Amino acid sequence: MKVAASLAVLFGLVQLATSSPARYPVGPRKNAAVEGYGQQTSAYTAPSAFPTSIFASYYNAPESMTAEPRPVVTDVARTSVFPDILANPTVLPPGPSPSEAVYPVPTGAATPDVADQVRAELTNTFSSSAANCTKCTDALKTAQKLAQQAPEQIPGMLVELCKKYNYKSAATCEATYAPQVLGSVYAQVLSYANFSEGSTDAQYICNIVVGSSTSSCTLPAPRELDEGFLDDWFRGQRIPPTEYNRNVGEPTKNNNDLRVLHMSDIHVDPRFFVGGEAACTNGRCCRADAYNSTLSSGKFTQGMLPKANISEVSTYWGNFKCDTPWSLVMALLEAVTPLNGGEEVDMTIHTGDMVVHDLAQYVSQDLVKYTHQSLYDSIRKMLGKGPVFNAIGNHDSAPSDFASQGALPDGRSDQLSWDWDNLARLWESEGWFNHKEAEQARKHYAGYSVTPRKGLRIVAINTDFWYKNNVFNMIHTQNPDYSGSLRFLTDELLRAEKRNERVWIVGHVLTGWDGSNPLDNPTNLFYQIVDRFAPHVIAHIFFGHTHEDQFNLFYANNATSVAADKAKAVSFMAPSVTPGNNVNPALRIMHVNATTYEVMDYHQFYTQVPTFPQLPSSQHGPVFEYLYSARDAYGNFTASNANSSHPTPGGVWPANAPLNATFWAKLTEEMHATPELVQQFTVFQGRNSPKSPKCTDDKCVQAKICYMQSGSAPLGKKCTQGYGSVQS
Ligand SMILES: *[C@@H]1O[C@H](CO)[C@@H](O)[C@H](O)[C@H]1NC(C)=O
Ligand SMILES: *[C@@H]1O[C@H](CO)[C@@H](O)[C@H](O)[C@H]1NC(C)=O
Ligand SMILES: *[C@@H]1O[C@H](CO)[C@@H](O)[C@H](O)[C@H]1NC(C)=O
Ligand SMILES: *[C@@H]1O[C@H](CO)[C@@H](O)[C@H](O)[C@H]1NC(C)=O
Ligand SMILES: *[C@@H]1O[C@H](CO)[C@@H](O)[C@H](O)[C@H]1NC(C)=O
Ligand SMILES: *[C@@H]1O[C@H](CO)[C@@H](O)[C@H](O)[C@H]1NC(C)=O
Ligand SMILES: *[C@@H]1O[C@H](CO)[C@@H](O)[C@H](O)[C@H]1NC(C)=O
Ligand SMILES: *[C@@H]1O[C@H](CO)[C@@H](O)[C@H](O)[C@H]1NC(C)=O
Ligand SMILES: *[C@@H]1O[C@H](CO)[C@@H](O)[C@H](O)[C@H]1NC(C)=O
């Protein structure tokens, strides 16, 4: 039975092999629209058994359901087997090894007592009566002396200051600022950033460290991108061609739409502990050492917390405050083919973040490699024929969030090349890339430009270079493209335009919304790039990162008008696989026209975390249900149509028209006229999560529409803040 079931999983036929498939329509959709776009199954019940055949062997017994399986995984270079300590829930992982520390190169001989001098100066600075922001900029200049002369003393100094000013507990200070954790990277930023008059690096750092609410630590205005800059940027080709053929692909054999899976933010937690505290007050929840301080002293042997001291028990299938257990990842992957009507999807886009959210001291290069290897292997085996295109996410590196630019001095650009190299090797070995494409990924920080089908080009970039938490971005803050990623993207778009291709841009961190995640300068430039190449070349943009179902519009002329006829592109942020924090796990199947590469509709599926505690007493695993079709849920513009700059006959979006930027821009117009739609959107944001706040008052409604219309950070920051997320 088990063998039959796991073989069946491989062929996506679980629903035939196991008892009775659930095939019933749920959610708000009407059947008609789904039928119009081909066969689509409404629900799928995953089997309770783990598909053990996916991995050759395990460190534990994966059948038990009392603990998460711990697969034995060999690295892609076939040089080693990842040790069980990366996944064993009751043993703390060793974290990064001291050899992973990377310091800046000292700029010259060190003054003998430089550390004492710097310590004294810092003490004076911090005890002065100056404004916090001034203290911060002064301290950076002082610390730079130490970072440039004796960089290996920076981690120790950070630990000392952290303890002295009670920033964190002594143990946490030591763990966080250890050289191989954050200490040596901070030394690089302190050494390589420019803190002199006229540079904005210090202002950026202090805005993040001190915050702008309590002081004058505001960000400088985004750098102006004037005509001259933009003319140069587009290599003298600022005017797009007047004619452009968008029918560049070839119809499929049976003239069906292409089926493209969009998944994001899997965040598998290999150390997920079943039967622990899922509503914890320390570290990470659903771990063997997690506890809730209202019910427990925290004094217990890992994995031995009595049930009476647990607020919410972590379950085999997952919990709202935790990342994804292996069992849930596999159930979701098993669901894809059945939900696609029994046929494998043609292609998959995964918009990044496979690695668990964890404390910095536990995120090692080995953990990142182990996670990527085991997940890519599983995805290939479960999804079958279609290639998988991945974006690197901020959690797909060690330390998390960091990516180093090619222009860093002293050969420091290479410190994360182990990661890009490993991803390139993996994508080639899984059969998704040829060697030349893999070489590209090595060169472009895991970014690439490939053509999986005639006329379609997928350009992926490493979006850590506009992520606020990548500290390397605090170096050369006035340069909107210090990494060269946007140069690469733009040149690929220029070439695609000449070749008459359509492009999908794939990344992880979004560029806009409320502006709380990305940086101003790079996303302001990205917005101008999109304006230049959309809608003719750029057909779609795919991101993830927020864990929430969102979209962003890009309008002509930097959004000086947000009338529907000015919309040029839309980016889709796919909802996450991980239930953290307080969202239901999701997967999205898009229907794409095979000649234009435009999305005709997408179907959003999800599974309800609140049902998980009851599953062990049933004979099955999670049920994946239908949530909504974008066209069905949003395609009726009756209330706003008459006043729209892009009216549609009868107010309903024509069945043969794609869900392009105009569609989504009209939706924002309709939302102004019908605020209930914003609440509907909010329900989808968290996928029916009972924990999501409502968005019904006018302030929230207006703010959320504003986020949707803001494709860059400077635009998003102009919206009323505080309504961006449904997580808590
Ligand atoms: C630091 O920034 C200032 C002001 O922009 C500039 O004049 C100077 O050349 C920069 N220094 C370095 C080393 O780049
Ligand atoms: C400066 O920071 C300290 C510590 O965070 C805070 O207590 C104080 O209110 C701040 N002072 C000003 C003027 O913002
Ligand atoms: C800790 O447990 C208490 C009591 O069960 C609960 O009210 C609280 O929400 C829990 N804390 C967290 C952070 O989940
Ligand atoms: C569990 O709760 C009991 C009752 O409050 C308390 O005495 C005991 O110390 C707790 N045990 C742990 C391990 O927190
Ligand atoms: C009509 O549309 C314009 C912008 O497109 C908007 O400013 C105005 O409020 C709309 N009027 C109504 C009645 O919806
Ligand atoms: C979207 O599609 C509609 C219908 O085909 C078309 O009128 C509109 O110009 C398109 N919008 C964009 C931005 O391509
Ligand atoms: C795809 O789009 C083209 C151009 O709009 C259209 O002619 C064709 O019928 C569409 N294909 C399908 C399968 O709908
Ligand atoms: C669109 O909405 C209007 C107003 O709510 C309604 O009368 C009409 O039936 C809807 N059309 C479709 C095709 O759902
Ligand atoms: C676009 O608008 C934002 C917000 O007003 C502004 O900061 C930015 O400089 C503008 N970009 C360009 C290229 O004009």
TrEMBL record:
<dbReference type="Pfam" id="PF00149">
    <property type="entry name" value="Metallophos"/>
</dbReference>
<dbReference type="InterPro" id="IPR011160">
    <property type="entry name" value="Sphingomy_PDE"/>
</dbReference>
<feature type="binding site">
    <location>
        <position position="508"/>
    </location>
    <ligand>
        <name>Zn(2+) 2</name>
    </ligand>
</feature>
<dbReference type="GO" id="GO:0016020">
    <property type="term" value="C:membrane"/>
</dbReference>
<dbReference type="GO" id="GO:0046872">
    <property type="term" value="F:metal ion binding"/>
</dbReference>
<feature type="signal peptide">
    <location>
        <begin position="1"/>
        <end position="19"/>
    </location>
</feature>
<feature type="disulfide bond">
    <location>
        <begin position="136"/>
        <end position="206"/>
    </location>
</feature>
<feature type="binding site">
    <location>
        <position position="353"/>
    </location>
    <ligand>
        <name>Zn(2+) 1</name>
    </ligand>
</feature>
<feature type="disulfide bond">
    <location>
        <begin position="280"/>
        <end position="285"/>
    </location>
</feature>
<keyword id="KW-0862">Zinc</keyword>
<dbReference type="GO" id="GO:0005615">
    <property type="term" value="C:extracellular space"/>
</dbReference>
<protein>
    <recommendedName>
        <fullName>Sphingomyelin phosphodiesterase</fullName>
    </recommendedName>
</protein>
<feature type="binding site">
    <location>
        <position position="394"/>
    </location>
    <ligand>
        <name>Zn(2+) 2</name>
    </ligand>
</feature>
<feature type="binding site">
    <location>
        <position position="547"/>
    </location>
    <ligand>
        <name>Zn(2+) 1</name>
    </ligand>
</feature>
<feature type="binding site">
    <location>
        <position position="545"/>
    </location>
    <ligand>
        <name>Zn(2+) 2</name>
    </ligand>
</feature>
<keyword id="KW-0479">Metal-binding</keyword>
<feature type="disulfide bond">
    <location>
        <begin position="162"/>
        <end position="173"/>
    </location>
</feature>
<keyword id="KW-1015">Disulfide bond</keyword>
<dbReference type="GO" id="GO:0016798">
    <property type="term" value="F:hydrolase activity, acting on glycosyl bonds"/>
</dbReference>
<dbReference type="InterPro" id="IPR041805">
    <property type="entry name" value="ASMase/PPN1_MPP"/>
</dbReference>
<keyword id="KW-0378">Hydrolase</keyword>
<feature type="binding site">
    <location>
        <position position="353"/>
    </location>
    <ligand>
        <name>Zn(2+) 2</name>
    </ligand>
</feature>
<keyword id="KW-0732">Signal</keyword>
<keyword id="KW-0325">Glycoprotein</keyword>
<feature type="disulfide bond">
    <location>
        <begin position="286"/>
        <end position="322"/>
    </location>
</feature>
<keyword id="KW-0326">Glycosidase</keyword>
<feature type="domain" description="Calcineurin-like phosphoesterase">
    <location>
        <begin position="258"/>
        <end position="548"/>
    </location>
</feature>
<dbReference type="GO" id="GO:0004767">
    <property type="term" value="F:sphingomyelin phosphodiesterase activity"/>
</dbReference>
<feature type="binding site">
    <location>
        <position position="267"/>
    </location>
    <ligand>
        <name>Zn(2+) 1</name>
    </ligand>
</feature>
<dbReference type="InterPro" id="IPR029052">
    <property type="entry name" value="Metallo-depent_PP-like"/>
</dbReference>
<feature type="binding site">
    <location>
        <position position="265"/>
    </location>
    <ligand>
        <name>Zn(2+) 1</name>
    </ligand>
</feature>
<comment type="similarity">
    <text>Belongs to the acid sphingomyelinase family.</text>
</comment>
<comment type="function">
    <text>Converts sphingomyelin to ceramide.</text>
</comment>
<dbReference type="GO" id="GO:0006685">
    <property type="term" value="P:sphingomyelin catabolic process"/>
</dbReference>
<dbReference type="InterPro" id="IPR004843">
    <property type="entry name" value="Calcineurin-like_PHP"/>
</dbReference>
